Amino acid sequence: MHPSDAMGWLAAGLMLLAFWCTGPRSLRAFALAANVAFIVYGLAEHLPPIATLHALLLPINAFRLVRAIRATAGRHTLARSASRGMSAAPQTAYSPPAKF
């Protein structure tokens, strides 16, 4: 097997794993890895449509992965605050309206 064929099969396997995932973080992580592998494969085999497609998908998957990580981190922060008896929203003191 030629090394570029192995890269193609690796890329296909990573893409299959991305479709198998149920969580957004793991899905995007596998999709990112598949994008990199497909870019390498496309360049090695002189397949510009494959390399171009995955080069365009790479920043989209990276953006979505960062967003999923931040969303998860935000939920963990809120859960920790709630377990400590803190409210998710900042508490403000009530002050009646000023009389003129």
Which strand-content bin applies to the residues? under 5%
Shape: elongated
- Number of DSSP helical runs: 3
Structural class, by secondary structure, is mainly alpha
Summarize the amount of helix as a percent range. Answer: over 70%
What does this structure look like?
The chain has helices at residues 3-20, 24-44, 48-83. It has one domain (3-83). 75% of the residues lie in helices and 0% in strands. The chain is mostly helical and 100 residues long. The radius of gyration is 23 Å and the shape is elongated. The chain contains 3 helices and no strands. The longest helix has 36 residues, at 48-83.
Blueprint of the fold:
Elements: H1 3-20, H2 24-44, H3 48-83
Helix pairs in contact: 1-2, 2-3
Q: What keywords describe this structure?
A:
100 residues; single chain; mainly alpha
Care to give the gist of this entry?
This protein has one domain (3-83). It is built from three helices and no strands.
